[in-house]
Sequence to fold (94 residues):
Amino acid sequence: MLSFTTEKVRVPSSSNFSGFAKVAHAEMANGAVEEIAADLRRTMSNQRCEHHPNHTSTVVLRALDRPGGNLFDVQKRGFCCREFENTIQVTVKR
Fold:
């Protein structure tokens, strides 16, 4: 079975223009990982490894604190075997 979790970035407080960009990026990244994780839970949570059907593997969507760069990355953790891990591909198109 698959579990989908998120790791959010801290939203900074700022009163200057460059700070507002960092706040906007953090809020956008945090919102994106929550939305995508919810979609993945709905569509992929029931996928199971045929060799280890009772094992729960975790996909983590991590918001990134890099204005101008990617909003998030995807990490696979605690998979029962490489074969099942390789079958799980997360591709996000926006």
Q: What stands out?
A: The CA atoms of residues 2 and 22 lie 32 Å apart. Strands lie at 2-7, 57-63, 72-77. The mean pLDDT is 89.
